Amino acid sequence: MMIKRLAALISCSLVSMVANSAALPSVQSDSPWFKDSAQLVASKANLENKTKAKNVILFVGDGMGISTLTAARIYQGQQINGNQGGEENFLSFEQFNHTALVKTYNTNQQTPDSAGTMTAIATGVKSKAGVLSVSDTALRGNCLSSKGNELVTLVDLANAKGLSTGVVSTARITHATPAATYANSPERNWEADSNLTAEAVANECKDIAYQIVMRDQDNALSVALGGGRRAFLPNTVTDGENKTGRRKDGMDLTQAWVENYENAAYVWNKEAFDAIDVASTDHLLGLFNSSHMEYEADRADDVGGEPSLTEMTAKSIELLKKNDNGYLLIVESGRIDHAHHAGNAKRALMDAVELSNAVKAAYETTDPDETLILVTADHSHVFTIAGYPKRGNPILGLVHGVDGNLSTAIDGKPYTTLGYTNGPGAVVGTRDDLSSVDTQDRDFMQQALVPMGSETHAGEDISLHATGPGANLAQGVIEQNVIFHIINQAQSLGGTKY
């Protein structure tokens, strides 16, 4: 009975203290955690929601799931503070005022691929894995079945309204995520004409590189920057980095770009990119690698030199903002995904941090009253943060507990904080002893559970972060195709019928 009475007294005391904030103990009310969070909520309560955006910038971190965000923010924080703390850090876009969770499944797959997910974002319609901006009525890899099932994209709608449009990626610009914004194809791998099947040729499907260059003048991209040069050059041509093109039709699409559009320019290295006169250039094509661009960790080693994602974003904004009507810019950090597939967390985290840098640059060089900035992913990865490391433990390191001692598994061997459910880092048989291994090296491959040649995507929700006019529409748990409608509503593109 005494215990119950004591509990009741304590409960009444706490209720009274909460009802009267002045009664909170100083150890609570003076806590930085308490004061900072109270100030944050107060600032959100005073937000003014504006609904119409002149410009929209959509950032997509390919494969950037929640665990990647968490690890990247800690990694960035530890680089700033010399491997101390990091958990309290925020990536630039994590401080945006509006956030939602996004469901990523394709119409035929529980765990999705990038073609189907970006199709949902770009068109407002979920579709199959492996297809680009065609409805799921089409059969993957079948040209004839895609006829009449092509979907209109955000780029098409923005161009039709007189806006300028741009697509940027650190992957091949013809790869699934960027390609879904401007191309219609029942097969994501039809990047060059040499990839087309006999059936596709017979039924007059065009390859993805052809589709980005041979667009009508009034539906042309103003900016296209990324990798994938090989899909634009004939197989008889060797590029500036001594790589051969893959086109069989003899077309040089880089030259076609310059000839097709007014005030057009093509660049393939950083020197030429830096030298571009934005004032006199209205259509810029930049292809900085034969295949994908380098990881951020390796960019300085590139033969021809490559601009960073931040530099490509800044240059794109500078060019696109010349249009008084506004613009739509879609920016993909494509190689987060590739590093995860390789079981290589460090490269994935470095690319995620560079995406954060690019978002920060975009925010600082645009008018927040005119520009809606969205940051999301297309899907997640089976990437985990585990064990019980002490706060401030190097995120890429071995787990040390709060007592400072090295933690070991049942087999007596240490383990890393970061790992993968499946992937190339798995060992069949005895687990490697990591005691003398530099797990923070850029080439280190995290251990995994299920052995696979390539780590896989994951099926859980990803996040959407938003700031600017229309950002308030990013809320709750949403289907991925809702992102299309958020942009469409904010920019009044005219693609929604009620």
Can you describe what's shown?
The protein has helices at residues 2-19, 26-29, 32-45, 66-81, 114-123, 143-146, 154-160, 176-179, 198-202, 208-213, 253-260, 270-275, 309-320, 335-341, 345-364, 482-491, and strands at residues 55-61, 98-103, 164-172, 223-227, 264-267, 283-287, 327-333, 371-377, 380-381, 383-385, 418-423, 448-451, 457-458, 462-467, 477-479. It has a ten-stranded mixed sheet with strand order 5-6-4-3-7-1-8-14-2-15, sandwiched between helices. The chain is of the alpha/beta class and 498 residues long. Helix 12 links the parallel strand 5 and strand 6 (283-287). Helix 4 crosses helix 15, helix 13 (309-320) runs parallel beside helix 15 and helix 14 (335-341) runs antiparallel to helix 15.
Topology diagram in text:
Layout: H1 2-19, H2 26-29, H3 32-45, E1 55-61, H4 66-81, E2 98-103, H5 114-123, H6 143-146, H7 154-160, E3 164-172, H8 176-179, H9 198-202, H10 208-213, E4 223-227, H11 253-260, E5 264-267, H12 270-275, E6 283-287, H13 309-320, E7 327-333, H14 335-341, H15 345-364, E8 371-377, E9 380-381, E10 383-385, E11 418-423, E12 448-451, E13 457-458, E14 462-467, E15 477-479, H16 482-491
Helix pairs in contact: 4-15, 13-15, 14-15
The radius of gyration computed from the alpha-carbon positions, rounded to a whole number of angstroms, is: 25 Å
**H/I helix tally:** 16
Biggest sheet features: 10 strands, mixed
The residue ranges in which pLDDT falls below 50 over 5 or more consecutive positions are 1-21
Number of strands: 15
Our estimate of the beta-strand percent is: 15-25%
For the largest beta sheet, what order do the strands appear in spatially? 5-6-4-3-7-1-8-14-2-15
In terms of structural class, how would the helical and strand content be classed? alpha/beta
